[in-house]
UniProtKB/TrEMBL annotation:
Name of the molecule in the record: Aspergillus nuclease S1
Keyword Metal-binding in record: yes
Keyword Transferase attributed: no
Keywords: Disulfide bond, Endonuclease, Glycoprotein, Hydrolase, Metal-binding, Nuclease, Signal
Length: 218
């Protein structure tokens, strides 16, 4: 785990405002078919606004206790790298139970959308909400000319969370935790110096969420 710091302002920015921003921008970038699928999967009370439920996965953790470990990746303290086989597991050692594995899981669930099965195998509304939220979590911790690059995945994959996770671990080491120590109270200068990176990761997350949903619901 990375050092324990006081991140009140940063945490609020990402957990509340950041997730709303990600989902709002992503929904604006959806293809016609993806927009129609998202509208169908969202509950009526959301009024076709994905951003209103983008923090649902955080709010439900106290009820879905099994989901808590899906929001992060626990990498070794002395390493600034991410390895799926080494790091993507829960405290019990169950492989795939981390944010990267969860994104792959919920992407695969959403790929069953429109299947001819009489009884859906998955709750696709929850899958959409988890995927939309976790895509923000995995970017937490490289501008318009980079959008096309952000949208792409290697090997034509629908989503590539391991790449996103590696970027975040690198950003955390190079920016979030650079020159700080355990139990440090972070001042305004710290947050202001990191805002460009935060803004960049938010933008990447929004573009990639939209691109993933467009590939799912093509």
């Amino acid at each position: 785990m990375l050092p324990a710091l006081t991140f009140s302002s940063f945490t609020y920015l990402w957990v509340i405002v950041g997730h709303q921003f990600i989902c709002q921008v992503a929904q604006d970038r959806l293809s016609e078919s993806a927009a129609a699928a998202v509208k169908e999967l969202l509950p009526a009370y959301a009024e076709n606004d994905l951003s209103t439920l983008c923090s649902w996965a955080d709010r439900i953790k106290f009820r879905y206790r099994w989901s808590s470990e899906l929001h992060y990746i626990d990498t070794p303290d002395d390493l600034c790298t991410y390895n799926y086989n080494r790091d993507c597991k829960d405290e019990g050692g169950v492989r795939g139970r981390c944010v990267s594995g969860a994104i792959t899981n919920y992407t695969n669930q959403l790929l069953t959308y429109g299947s001819s099965a009489d009884e859906p195998q998955y709750n696709l509304t929850e899958a959409l909400l988890f995927l939309s939220h976790l895509m923000g979590d995995i970017h937490q911790s490289d501008w318009s000319d980079q959008v096309v690059k952000w949208e792409k995945c290697s090997n034509n994959d629908v989503t590539c969370p391991d790449i996103y996770a590696s970027e975040s671990i690198k950003a955390a080491c190079n920016w979030a935790y650079k020159d700080v120590k355990n139990n440090t109270v972070l001042e305004d200068d710290y947050f202001l110096s990191r805002l460009p990176i935060v803004n960049l990761r938010l933008a990447e997350s929004a573009v990639r969420l939209a691109a993933t949903l467009n590939r799912i619901f093509k």
